[in-house]
Amino acid sequence: LPITKAIQDVLQQLGIKELNPAYSTGLQWAEGEGRTTRTILSPADGNKIAAVSMATPEDYEKVVTTAAAAFKVWRKVPAPKRGEIVRQIGDKLRQHKEALGKLVSYEMGKILQEGLGEVQEMIDICDFAVGLSRQLHGYTMHSERPEHRMYEQYHPLGIVGVISAFNFPVAVWSWNAMLAAVCGDVTIWKPSEKTPLTAIACQHIIRDVLTENELPEGIFNVIIGDAEIGSLMAHDTRVPLVSATGSTRMGKKVGEAVGARLGKSLLELGGNNAIIITENANIEMALMAVVFGAVGTCGQRCTSTRRLIIHENVYEQVKERLTKIYPGLPIGHPLDATTLVGPLIDKEAVTTFLGALEKVQAEGGKLIIGGEVLSGAKYQTGTYVTPAIVEAENHYEMVQEETFAPILYLLKYSGDVENAIELQNGVKQGLSSSIFSTNLLETEAFLTHWGSDCGIANVNIGTSGAEIGGAFGGEKDTGGGRESGSDAWRIYMRRQTNTINYGRELPLAQGITFKI
Ligand code: NAD
Asked: How far is Cα 307 from Cα 325, in angstroms, rounded to an integer?
């Protein structure tokens, strides 16, 4: 099938042509002569969208040098003025929301509503960053010494490396890049090699803002590449902070490399998120959250609901309702407004999905619905699957793993909520968690320090779909990083304590006497 006119219009509006770009330092693009070409196919219909060039280590070197020079200029721009640039970027994103949302949907495979939601997150973080640009404040403290003043300030850090995953191809960049920008940093973004076009589109969108404000090359950089470029960034002492989003496997490598040179890393890695449904839950409300969490983005969100921990008294009821709802879920092209479940990113993901189902059944799991690869005219790509539900036990190896696909494990618990919390916490990952209950004793227990051990703990809300205002991230194998709202901005700055003596004596701290 030829690529549709609608998508061609989107590509044109977003400035994506057949130019095979490899990197951009903001205004200019380096085209791909002599580099390896990568063709980007849509998981929705298998059509070629465009091609990109894989940047080389020499390209990386040029980008870092340009970024380092730009930092010297950008850090001197007052923070509220940096905020003004971000405000203009937010406006441009508003203008292009529909087109960019469509491209996110078409390149990544999430349904259009989620594609638009992702762009809305970018707009929201721009607004947040604008406000923040006047609030990058530290504390003032009272000095123990007379006629002394003590306070702390936050200074720009330098180059921030951003490595992003395919499933949130643009939002995660904006969470990092917009905060980093108001903090006075410059960013080098290495998007997922599976979804580089949306990154190129973002760079085109913000280029006008950079040009209109006569800003130099190097403040916002994007480099197209795979793990090799990511690894260069992780090892590079010129990059004081590397923010990496992706699998735990990748995070361990990046964290190790950055740690070995005593750099800072912000790791946003895999989740194995659970919803607890107690016998006091509003079941219908819980089901809405479970289905959105389990099949949304075809189970490819870091916060996707993977485990459902259900009280034995309502277990059969929940299972029965889910097995009625699942067959009615419209699976199809993500740009079709009636679709609720789009495709997996590629055939490799389908193989992983099938392999996980096979393994969990070998361990004793019972597949009760789904788990098929769809075929026929609508599903020629081989990337469409029916979301699966499996009755399982928490200790199964596959239940302990994050399989990045729509598999929901049903786990039964009995007794009180602490038993459910123990199951919820009984995995290596610690990203998102939630409880459905109308009983205050249960919900409060879930939120105590002996409750959920995750970075996100929700009550009567599912595991996926966070707002940008809170700090986002998780514990344990999820990496411990926090980005987006609250005070997540602090990691993008270096902290300095200043003590000023405005007297004529030089008293020492702790009352030490030292006379010469
Ligand atoms: P991935 O780990 O395969 O790749 C992520 C990024 O890391 C890509 O840009 C890739 O090129 C790069 N990369 C891979 N190996 C690297 C290395 N050794 N050094 C440097 N860079 C390297 O992940 P994916 O398949 O794109 O995304 C899915 C994973 O991301 C899931 O585990 C999901 O839970 C996780 N994720 C986490 C969050 C979060 O905020 N916690 C958000 C989105 C996705």
From this structure: 17
In this prediction, residue 412 carries a pLDDT of 98
- How far is the C-alpha of 122 from the C-alpha of 189, rounded, in Å? 15
- Quote the CA–CA distance of 178 and 402 in Å, as a whole number: 29
Structure-token match 């007379």, residue found? 146
Selecting among 268, 401, 402, 483, the annotated active-site residue is: 268
pTM (whole model) above 0.95 = yes
How far away, in angstroms, is 146 Cα from ligand 1 center? 52
Amino acid at 54: M
ipTM of the complex: 0.98
pLDDT digits (tens, 9 = 90+) for 188-231: 999 999 999 999 999 999 999 999 999 999 999 999 999 999 99
Inter-residue contact 288 to 465 (CB < 8 Å): no
pLDDT (0 to 100) of residue 18: 56
Q: 262, 381, 393: which is closest to 332 by C-alpha?
A: 381
Q: At residue 2, does pLDDT exceed 70? A: no
The total number of residues shown for the chain amounts to 516
Ligand 1 contacts CB of residue 227 (under 6 A): yes
Q: Is the CB of residue 119 less than 8 Å from the CB of residue 101?
A: yes
CA 317 – CA 286 distance, rounded (Å): 12
Pairing of strands 273-277, 264-268: unpaired
Spatial distance between the Cα atoms of 89 and 487, rounded to a whole number of angstroms = 22
**pLDDT > 90: percent of the chain:** 93
